[in-house]
Amino acid sequence: MNYKEGYDWGKQSLETAGVSEAELDARLLLEKICGTDRNTLLVHGDRLLTEEEKNRYQDWIQKRAQHIPLQHLTGEQEFMGLTFLVNGHVLIPRQDTEILVEEVMREMMDGSRILDMCTGSGCILLSLLHYSNDCRGTGADISQEALAVAGENARRLGIQACFLRSDLFEKIEDKYDIIVSNPPYIQTRVIDGLMDEVRLHEPLSALDGGEDGLVFYRKILEGCPEHLVRGGSLYFEIGYDQGEAVKELMEKHGFSEVRVTKDFAGLDRVVSGLWYE
């Protein structure tokens, strides 16, 4: 089997299985296994696959056809120009969340103290620390398995950060200049209708935001006053239809200058505000 034949088989197999972006996934899996790039398919399609490459590719395609996420097969995902380790214990970093990081970066100061609540893979906190100077950061999560992933990502990237197992603010003692969070925000009744890649393979605890999707926003807002300095900032990622609801919650809890930021698709994505009380 040559490179082009392998790709064609992989693409057809994924299309038959109803995998979205079958062409892209078939190519990316082949490139990961062979250590090639997108030009190889165009220029060196007659390159013969080794027996090991063929067997591994067929195995990965069969698993992807079962809707196992591509990132769980490759073990990594790009985010903010960095490569993060991912597995079934953490949410796969998504491009939408880069909007959250960019909003924090627009206003953060060198030397800021940052708390990333529900840190998961650590992609938000580690990106902020990577692209800033002299900032200190803590990532909190209730999942020890997720914290292990975050710690390994910090090690790989050479970034110093503290990762703490905590049920929200339970073990948090310090005050911070910035609190940032991408909490679970999907309504419980919606979860059964999610794509198989998400519903079956990403951690439910990182998805389920309760009956109205707002449970964790309320809990985090209740704990913020003890852990934000005066003039500190809070940033939330939100679902596309939660902008006004989360904005009202933040204002109700005493935050000022609350604003909703849209993503590149024009959908509400981030709510942020300042703490002065």
Provide the low-confidence segments as ranges.
Answer: none
Shape: elongated
* Fraction in beta strands: 15-25%
Number of domains: 2
Looking at the overall shape, the CATH architecture of the largest domain is: 3-Layer(aba) Sandwich
Discrete helix count: 11
Reading the helices and strands in chain order gives: HHHHHEEHEHEHEEHHEHEE
Major sheet: arrangement of strands? 5-4-3-6-7-9-8
CATH class term of the largest domain: Alpha Beta
Question: Roughly what is the average pLDDT, rounded to an integer?
Answer: 96
Helix content: 40-55%
What is the β-strand count? 9
CATH topology of the largest domain: Rossmann fold
Report the sheet with the most strands, covering strand number, pairing sense and barrel closure.
Answer: 7 strands, mixed
C-alpha end-to-end distance: 67 Å
How large is the radius of gyration? 21 Å
CATH superfamily of the largest domain: Vaccinia Virus protein VP39
